[in-house]
Specification:
Length: about 190
Amino acid sequence: MQKKEPKIKRKSKQEASFHQGQKVMLLIATRTEMGLTAIIDGTQEGILYENEVFQPLKIGQKISGYIKKVRDDGKIDLCLQKPGYKAVDALSASIMYKLRHQKGFMALTDKSRPEVIADLFGVSKKVFKKAVGNLYKKRLISLEEDGIRLREKKKKPIAGSKKRRRDNRPSKSLRRGSSHRGTKDAEAKNRN
């Protein structure tokens, strides 16, 4: 018994215009030497390149994806992760979540194998390194030889508590004869 090829509802070019970064529904259609072809929103065919797919996909599977690029020849390149820095932001949130739920440490570094990163996060090593760099720049993590550690937040002082002066001297304003003291002295002179 042969599998039926999914039917494509053809639309005019105006109706089926896609733009870079657009979220779409994909129906995995066939395997090729370059990767997988998918039907985009039931209208046009696009390609998911094998080196950019980090999860198992089956023919006939429906999955959400993104338009990576609409080429000049009208062909469409697809991806499963948000393109550009949107993917980095989403992955950064995932890394932070995983760190919080693993006692603040994860045994992954920039030297980790791409397959390990793909298995854990479903992204390329390049995107992983961008996300880690983003978190490091924001000082949310520290990079160690054997992994990534969540940085502890510094405790903020409790509102209303002031540091006591160590030398028990009055503040500068009181030592100079502040307006507060001067006001009381003036009031006393006016009453006499």
